[in-house]
Amino acid sequence: MTAKADWEEIERLFHEAIDLPMHERSALLASVSEPVRAEVESLLKADDGEFFARPPAHLAADLLEDQPGALAAGESVGKYEVESLVTVGGMGEVYRARDPKGAPVALKILRRHLVASPQAADRFETEARAASALNHPNIVTICESGESRAGLFIAMEWVDGPTFREVIDAGTVNRLQAIDWGGQAARAVAAAHAAGILHRDIKPENIMLSSDGVLKILDFGLARLAGPVRLDVDSSGASGTISGTLSGTLLYMPPEILRGETATSASDVYSLGAFLYELWAGRHPFAAATPLEVFEAIECRVVATPSAVCADVPPEIDELILRMLDRDPSQRPSASEARDVFSRFSTKT
């Protein structure tokens, strides 16, 4: 672990590097010691919106068994007993654990050496507060959050099932499933908005399907508890996540956020629309080979109707998804309107 005396240098380098393009970041960090460089790169990766980007699931391929500070089976975090490491994110670990009654929980732990970072702790606590404020069957339940010997932690409902990235990639979604799951997702987002909470990172990787067919939205690490927020765009990174202070995932970001404008509930509606499009069509409306091409597609490409790709899409839902993807936020329906469309349509099937 990096000595405390190094944190001044780490903090200075972090704030200097965060405003630089990727190639200039590398040049800046080339001359510093390996431990300091590793800590700065870890903080930069965390700020790039990858904080627990992989949800609690069976993701064995992502495990980093030699991760420094990883907890062993049998160790306690508060009242929870660790069973196994599930995955490692930019700022912490996710474990499968048991509560005192033996029920499984997903345990997110902020790495102990990052608790000193105000930004890391703030994002962690924001997720805990935002998700704890919501009580909805389609939003993952927070059991408890607090601080332990291991660091800050969030104990949350364990969802035994795949992410919707896995569901969509499997290519097995049928008409009835798409209507059911689309309605569940719309209800969850509408409930969050009714509570004054923006998610700001809705995407298939942050939505899971439980073994009993219930859709669950998770990962409120980028959430805002109330009102619009101003995002400052400073650089762009890989095709997944935008770097710097523009946090989120490029493919699911609405045009106004990419232009550095204010995030509102309409921004979540856009991201939900992109998810619904992919759920029905099996492909993203703005998929492209490079981040720049994705950016240009979001700004300029005419969206093909979902029904042009999948003939099973009902006209009402076809129209709804196109409205949700409108480049003008004021022209998008609300999440509650989307919920109502699915509710009305599901009564017909």
The top-level CATH class of the largest domain is Mainly Alpha
The helix/strand series, from N terminus to C terminus, equals HHHEEEEHEEHHEEEHEHHHHH
Uncertain spans, ≥5 residues at pLDDT below 50? 1-5, 48-68, 225-247
Mean pLDDT: 77
How far apart the termini lie comes to 58 Å
The tally of domains stands at: 2
Q: What Rg, in angstroms, do the CA atoms define?
A: 20 Å
Q: What is the 3D form?
A: globular
> From the 3D coordinates, which CATH architecture of the largest domain would you assign?
Orthogonal Bundle
The number of helical segments is 12
Largest sheet: 6 strands, antiparallel
Strand content: 5-15%
Q: Tell me how many strands there are.
A: 10
Report what the structure shows:
The structure is a single chain. This protein has twelve helices and ten strands. By secondary structure, it is α+β, with helices and mostly antiparallel strands. The chain has a six-stranded antiparallel sheet, with helices on one face. A two-stranded antiparallel ribbon has the order 7-8. It has a two-stranded antiparallel sheet with strand order 9-10. A hairpin with a 2-residue loop joins strand 1 and strand 2. Helix 6 (175-194) packs antiparallel against helix 8, helix 6 runs antiparallel to helix 12 (335-346) and helix 11 (315-324) runs antiparallel to helix 12 (335-346). The longest helix is centred in the middle third of the chain and has 20 residues, at 175-194. It is globular, with a radius of gyration of 20 Å. The N and C termini lie far apart (58 Å).
